[in-house]
Amino acid sequence: MQQIQRRIIYSILILAGLIWINFSTDHNSESTNGQIPAPRQNFLAPDFSLQTIEGETIQLSGLRGNVVLVNLWATWCPPCRAEMPAIQKMYEEYKDDGFMVIAVNMTNQDEINSIQPFLQEYELTFPVPLDTSGEVAKYYNLRSLPSSYFIDRQGIIREVVIGGPMAEALLRTRIESLLK
Amino acid sequence: MIMLTLFQNFFSPPRDLILVVAAIWLGSWLAEKRAERFGLGLNDLNNIIYYPLLGFILGGRVLYVLENLPAFTSDLRSLVSLNISLFDTLGGLVTALLVAFIYGKQREVPFWHALDALTPLFASIFIGLSLANLASGSAFGMETDLPWAVTLWGATRHPSQVYAFFASLLTLLFLWFYKMPLKPGTFFLSFSAITSGWLLFLEAFRGDSVLVLGGFRLAQIASWFVLVAALVLLDRKYLE
After folding, report:
1. CB contacts < 8 A (A, B)
2. What ipTM does the predicted assembly reach?
């Protein structure tokens, strides 16, 4: 290819790139508006309403204004067990600053009789709603346990952590960043 | 659609990382096949892949720890946690580049020859990333009602990860089979130009772009600068 031909082609490519960038601008910010409910970073956290083992009703959208950690877990899941002490510790440290933990037990794939002993063994004081029908598992597209969702004060998911156990440093950095 | 669901279930996070690791392995194997053509010994090639890779992993974690030191001082076990979220990706990349640079300087590895030899690895990593994104639902597309749209995150969307997979696969196949007269650096620069070109084009169909300056997509601007740099350097190479 001659030098002139090559430079003409390169110039056309560079110019076409600029035109395409301008053509594909996203003036409505539709790609980042965070309004559609989906279990994904920068999306609105799918709402749910469940009862705890004590019979108290917990609705996620009712916790707006708080930073919320939604943790999906089961008693038979070793990494779920391993991360519970760190979650409890963070809950105690930050609850007065507006941090909430909603640890949803996947009751439809767990033994309901083993939940209360589990809560006592780990001395968990945050709400533990029971997903008896699997609705939260469905809304949150659950594929692995544990799965954790850090939700900001506006109800938007800011980070998803699939698998575990979550380290205390991970919990602390995310909570502190969202509480700012 | 069933195939896609099976794929996503099988490689759902955190198993999606297996695809990136497999891509690195495949890319290293392909790079080995072509290393001698670019004047790079197998020992140097392997070292220039695996030392920076180690630098990426260690550098990313160490820099993250330094940036968030108070969070780690209260729980030292977190230092060795397997959570990949405790990682500074940019810091890891900078460390990997530094390690590669230092190794190259010490062993007097020719710069452009090394980049040419590593190009199959880079191309393979793009394939692995697109598949990992497809499995995890990351790098998702804008909403559309086109017949080939996929349902993802509460809407029917462009299958942007599939677009990226085919673009990266075609890039690798083109570079692998195309017999061009090679001057040092032209193989890598051709890859850079082609890849930045399709990244710039396909970013327009993404639904998760970072927007700057009132709606411009940051990744497109970055890709455009890479494209310009690659074409200018290619032009100079052909004049040498």
Report:
1. 126
2. 0.85
